[in-house]
Amino acid sequence: MSLWLDVHQWQPLRGNLHPIADVECEPPDPAPDSPAGWHDWAGECLTEVADKDRWQSGRYHFTVQERDDEGRNLNEIAQGYWEWAADQPVQPGKR
Fold first, then answer.
1. CA–CA separation, 49 and 87 (whole Å)
2. Sheet holding 2-11, edge to edge
3. What is the pLDDT of residue 56?
4. Per-residue DSSP letters for 35-87?
5. What does the pLDDT look like over 1-44, one tens digit per residue?
6. Which residues does 7 contact at the CB level (< 8 Å), separation at least 6?
7. What predicted TM-score, i.e. pTM, was given to this entire model?
8. Nearest Cα residue to 25 out of 70, 63, 82
């Protein structure tokens, strides 16, 4: 089984969600048994990626998806919103 997070960023000025990333994550063992458990697991995965890739602070929507080897969505396990606050702002001229 392959688990992915389909992630969209909330754009408040436009009032909509914009696709930003598909993130492959290691399946949790044991699997969460509640929506809150899946939300916590997704938050941990997203925090790791957002910190590494320096995502901007904001609100993100995610869907936890089980996908086949070709990347097709087989099952949507959970979804929700996640808030990210970047700890270290990028200094001008640096990435």
1. 14
2. 16-25, 2-11, 58-67, 73-84
3. 92
4. HHHHHHHHHHHHHHHHHHHTPPSEEEEEEEEEE-TT--EEEEEEEEEEEE--S
5. 689 999 999 998 888 999 999 999 999 999 999 999 999 999 99
6. 19, 20, 21, 22, 23, 46, 60, 61, 62
7. 0.83
8. 63
Q: With residue 11 as reference, give the H or E element that holds it.
A: strand 2-11
Nearest to 53 by CA among 12, 16, 26, 90: 90
- Length of the chain, in residues: 95
- Letter string b/e over residues 22-60, b meaning 16 or more CB atoms within 10 A of that residue's CB: ebebeeeeeebeeeeebbebbbebbeebbeeeebeebeb
Q: How far apart are CA 52 and CA 84, in angstroms?
A: 13
CA separation for the pair 66, 46 (Å, rounded): 16
pLDDT at residue 87, rounded to an integer: 73
67-84 average pLDDT score: 94
